[in-house]
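Project channel, design review

CF: Before we commit to the Paraburkholderia kururiensis constructs, I'd like one complete example in the thread so the newer folks can see what an input/output pair looks like. Taking Bifunctional protein FolD.
RD: sounds good, go ahead.
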Amino acid sequence: MSVAHMIDGKAEAARLLDMLREDVSRLRAQGVAPCLAVVLVGNDPASEVYVRNKVLRAREIGIESLECRLPADTDEPALLGLIARLNADPAVHGILVQMPLPAGLTESAVIDAIAPAKDVDGFHRENVGRLVLGEPGLAPCTPSGCLHLLRRIAHDLSGKHAVVVGRSNIVGKPVATLLLQANCSLTVVHSRSVNAAQLCRQADIVIAAVGKPQLIDANWVKPGAIVIDVGINRIEVDGKPKLVGDVDYASVSRVASAITPVPGGVGPMTIAFLMKNTIAAAAAQHGLRQQAPASAA
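CF: and here is what came back for Bifunctional protein FolD:
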């Protein structure tokens, strides 16, 4: 029995970051130093790791980084005030507020407070609207990373049947939009879907973004399908912590033609596209080049 090709997101992210380093050099030669401001409220351990990785990748390719750390008891007016100052600072080109936020802070209000031109996460309603309309804008990083990996494997996605498992605003909905723009036939499976596994078995492409560890096993996947696993779940195996995806890698890798691992699949691509958005935002704010369409992953 053949085993699926493992899609190495870590290696592909490294390749993309090398290209982005050249983009940063070209911008610096024109007098623009791209700068990413990362805001962390509280001291959630997972968020600390994510912020550290983002700042490290930024510095590695020449992007300036500004870390703004606030205590967990920060109130909403104080956080919104900080965002307003970052919006007004011409030296800051991208703003990222690390989620989740502590209790008492409203994620939607915080996202809406970020200037759309500096919204490198691609979560602001203006950028979401641009994504849906296929207009130039800053697209969400994880969905863009998923499409990039798919195109590296399948090249032309036109006419392929894609099933997205999950309908979140962060991944499920935007990745569905990107797949439609890539001319896929699309099905979205969610908690209220009937015969979810049967629907999934019809897919040429499966993107799992539901947040349930190892939900999707070989019975969900058509032989030869490409499987992109967005899930990052912490479980215990034999009393030891382990990171797993939404896909049961062991069983699905014996059915699929290609599959992303967890970790080392989509995660590194998310950070790479955050850097890509920061560079695009810096260029656009200085009128140096047109941003690529949001659908171009």
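RD: helpful, thanks. The two ends are 33 Å apart (CA to CA).
CF: Confidence is low (pLDDT under 50) at residues 290-297.
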